[in-house]
Amino acid sequence: MPSTRWTPFVTVAAVVEHDGRYLLVEEQTPDGLRLNNPAGHLECGESPLEAVVRETLEETARAFTPEALLGLYLSRFTPRPGDDRTYLRIAYAGRVGEPLPGRALDSGIVRTLWLTADEIRAQAARLRSPLALQCIEDHLAGRRLPLDGVYSHPSLWNGADPVLR
Question: Which terms does the record give in the GO molecular function aspect (predicted)?
Fold first, then answer.
């Protein structure tokens, strides 16, 4: 009897607030233009912290500095028959710098926006994932966990210290 192992898709997300507004990206998806936190998939050989810094830079052209872990989030996504995915999102709160001159946004990203929580709630149907708003709500509620709440073993980098790679 063949065994199938359930494997979630692991993603990271950045929650960035400045002056009461949250940084979002507007991106092309198979379901049209959607809003999301700067986010993306964890890649082989990188820690979640490295991934969220990379993804935020790619999607916003801004350097991201993680300051706290917001939490781990699970969501099931079944847009079409036969397409059943579960996502595990690792979300971080932090800050970004100014856009880097000459840095293009990642393919599929149309633009970045700064929206209030109420503006985001009003556009909940346009969110790529229900987790985007949940992360913002948790941020608004003051949830902050230590960054070392997610441990990355050196084996991710073949035993090399990631700082020295």
Answer: hydrolase activity
What confidence tens digit (pLDDT) does each residue in 115-160 have?
Answer: 999 999 999 999 999 999 999 999 999 999 999 999 999 998 876 6
Distances (CA, A) of 51 to 13, 33, 163: 9, 23, 14
Q: Which of 121, 99, 124 is nearest to 111 (CA)?
A: 99
Show me where the domains of the chain are located. Answer: 9-143
Pick the CATH number of 9-143 from 1.20.120.1080, 3.30.450.20, 3.90.79.10, 3.40.50.300: 3.90.79.10
d(CA 148, CA 128): 28
Q: What is the pLDDT of residue 123?
A: 97
The CA distance from 68 to 164, in Å, is: 23
Are the C-beta atoms of residues 36 and 14 closer than 8 Å to each other?
no
